[in-house]
Amino acid sequence: MTVTIGVLGIQGAVTEHIKKLEQLPKVKAVLVKSIEALQQIDGLILPGGESTAIARILQDFQIFESLQKKITAGLPVWGTCAGMILLAKKILDSDMTHLGVMHITVKRNAYGRQLGSFSILETIPAISDQPIPLVFIRAPFALEAADQVEILHILDGKIVACREQHMLATAFHPELTDDLSFHRYFVKMVQQYKL
Amino acid sequence: MNERYNLNKNLAQMLKGGVIMDVVNPKEAEIAEKAGAVAVMALERVPSDIRRDGGVARMSDPKMIQEIQTAVSIPVMAKVRIGHFVEAQILEALQIDYIDESEVLTPADEDFHIDKTAFQVPFVCGAKNIGEALRRIGEGASMIRTKGEAGTGNVVEAVRHMRTMNQQIRKIQSASKEELMTLAKCYQAPYDLVCYVHEHGQLPVVNFAAGGIATPADAALMMQLGCDGVFVGSGIFKSANPLKRAEAIVKATTYFDKPEILAEVSNDLGLAMDSLDIRIMDEKQLFASRGW
């Protein structure tokens, strides 16, 4: 079954995700910048970028509420880095949340400034039996997750990948590597929910 | 290619489709963040003031940079003089997110740029053409911006530089393999990077527009010409209504291909910054010719 997956195209690593999706069979990748485009997709990727900037545009163009409703109603969604922050129910040391749909508490810029950015090879059994390169760019992590959240990966005691039903969040950027396994995993998720 | 260099190129990828704004104090930085900037450039004087005041323009006071780092959660960039590797060492010690080795400041070395591979923090550099861009990348820059002509509020030079770069990229891309060494010679660019452009049809790093962007339409123009995002220097905080103009430029950069939205956000922004006609300026006043 072919699925249409959107990449939120406000700002950030948008084309990187689209290029990855285009390498997978039975996937149509589309750019999402409007409420109309939101109605035509089976799943959505919230890319890395600056969460404050992305949230600002989402609100100004009234995309925010429609998106929130769609996700609550079951639209499969995957947030990478800034996208993870957009999904989180709580942001540490902040009264603000964005979409607030996923039961995790995240810390922004959790590894510090750009000098703290790093990459590491890790094996994540739920995703692939091969080690996957994980790229963290001024990345967040999750400090806490509710019981219904499935923890996919922990790095140095911090949650860096997790899933709550139809919602996937990663603190790192699979779209910046040559590895397709996370995109494959998300496509499978989208296919399951389309059935 | 080493891991740190890749991580540094990756940070620039996260800024794509966004606006990086010049700010001179924490208050402006907060306004920029609120308006939706993806990063701020901390500097003592915006380019139009540097032009007006004259004298030597240097790296900013670390105290001011640190105050700005504390005030916002988005990446903070700062400028060093061309060739002034000690100013760069100081910014690295401050854990700056990006260093701009900038022609807007007074050059410290009239022969050599900084060896950017000696640093862990990333560098962005200005370029007027493909040769200049690839030389800076060869020295270790992980992001490029057009030079434009900073502090003029006149987008003509940014357009010239972006069009020149695009034409040269197309020329390299469509050349046959045996022409590449001669093109490298003609553009004074490293051969391996010319080969990269030939194969991929683009620079190996993110390419922003800068120098003279003053309106939402300017920002959208540069985006339609194919840049990855924009720097706005004097254009915001030297205008009549900085917050409103900043928000409008952010929206125009995201929806650069939607004229209805551009029309709406361009509405009633008040006066733009004071501007200059580059054709009547003295050669010596031009920043873009600095760099080698």
Task: Jot down its keywords.
heterodimer; A: 195 residues; alpha/beta; 7-stranded mixed β-sheet; 3-stranded mixed β-sheet; 27% helix; globular; B: 292 residues; 8-stranded parallel β-sheet
What does this 3D model show about the protein?
The complex is a heterodimer of chains A (195) and B (292). Chain A contains 6 helices and 12 strands. Chain A has helices at 14-22, 35-38, 51-60, 63-72, 82-87, 181-194, and strands at residues 3-8, 27-32, 43-46, 77-80, 88-91, 102-107, 118-123, 131-136, 141-145, 150-155, 158-164, 167-170. Chain A has a 7-stranded mixed β-sheet. A 3-stranded mixed β-sheet of chain A has the order 5-6-9. In chain A, strand 1, helix 1 (14-22) and strand 2 form a beta-alpha-beta unit. The radius of gyration of chain A is 15 Å and the shape is globular. With 292 residues, chain B is of the alpha/beta class. Chain B has 13 helices and 8 strands. In chain B, helix 2 (26-35) packs across helix 12, helix 7 (156-174) crosses helix 9 and helix 10 (216-224) packs parallel to helix 12 (242-254). The longest helix of chain B is centred in the middle third of the chain and has 19 residues, at 156-174. Chain B is globular, with a radius of gyration of 18 Å. The chains are: A alpha/beta (195), B alpha/beta (292). At the A-B interface, helix 1 and helix 3 of A face helix 1, helix 2 and helix 12 of B.
